[in-house]
Amino acid sequence: MNSTSSPTLTTWSPIPAPLERIAFKLVWPIIFINLLGTAFGFLYYLPQFSVEPFLMLPFVPDSPVATLFFALSLGLWKLGKNSIWISSIAFIGCIKLGLWTPYVLLMFFSDFSYLHPLMYHFLFWSHLAMALQAFLIFRYTTFSFAAILVGFSWHFFNDIVDYFIPLIGSPHHTWLPSEVIGGVAYHAGSAHSIAAAGAVLLTFISLVFLLISIYPLPRRL
After folding, report:
1. How far is CA 35 from the centre of its chain?
2. Structural domain boundaries enclosing 121
3. How far is residue 188 from each of residues 98, 110, 156, measured CA to CA in Å?
4. Do residues 89 and 69 make contact, with C-beta atoms less than 8 angstroms apart?
5. Which helix (H) or strand (E) covers residue 181, if one does?
6. 217: left (phi > 0), else alpha (psi -120 to 50), else beta?
7. Is residue 134 situated within a structural domain?
8. How far apart are CA 34 and CA 28, in angstroms?
9. pLDDT tens digit string along 100-124?
C-alpha cells in the first residue's frame, strides 16, 4: 500500500479507531518522536557500549533499534516505498521491547529505585506506547510468511546472543541493576533468567500476532 492509500482495517488492533485516524494524520511527527527516542536510547546505552565487543554492538540497544525500524517502516510507507521486511522487524521489536521493559521495571522495581520517579515513569509509559504503535503497521502492511520469518529470525537470534550463547564476550542484553557490580555485568543470577524468559516469550507472542494477520482464526458460525 502506498502513502496515498487509506489504511486498511482487516486486522485486529487494540488502538481505538479515532486514535488511529489521528495517528495517520501525524505520521511525520510520530516518525520524529521515534527518532528522538532512538537517539535517547543510544545515549542511555553508552556505558554498556564501552565494554561490548564491536561486532556485537548491533544486538545491544534493543529498544532504540526497534524504534528506528518503526520510524523507517512508517516513513517508507508514507513515501510509497513500503517494506514488509523492515515492517516485520519493526513490529516484533516494538511489541517485544515495548512490553519487556515495563516487565523488568516491575519485576525488579526496587533495583530501579536509583531512577528519578519521572524517569521511571517515562521509561515505563513510553515503552508501552512502543508496543501500542506497532499495531499501526497492520494498517498499511500485508505480511508474507517469508517476511514474518525474517523478522522472527532477527529477534530470536537477538535473544540467543543476549541471554544464552553470546558468541563473543558475555551475554549482550540490556544491563539490569542487580547484575552490575563495579561497572561489570554478571549474568549468573535469577535476574538473568527472569529477563530471558520474558524476552523469549514476548518474541513468540509477537510472532503469533503476525501469523494471525495472514492466517486469521476461523470465526464461529
Report:
1. 14
2. 17-214
3. 25, 19, 21
4. yes
5. strand 180-181
6. beta
7. yes
8. 10
9. 999 999 999 999 999 999 999 999 9
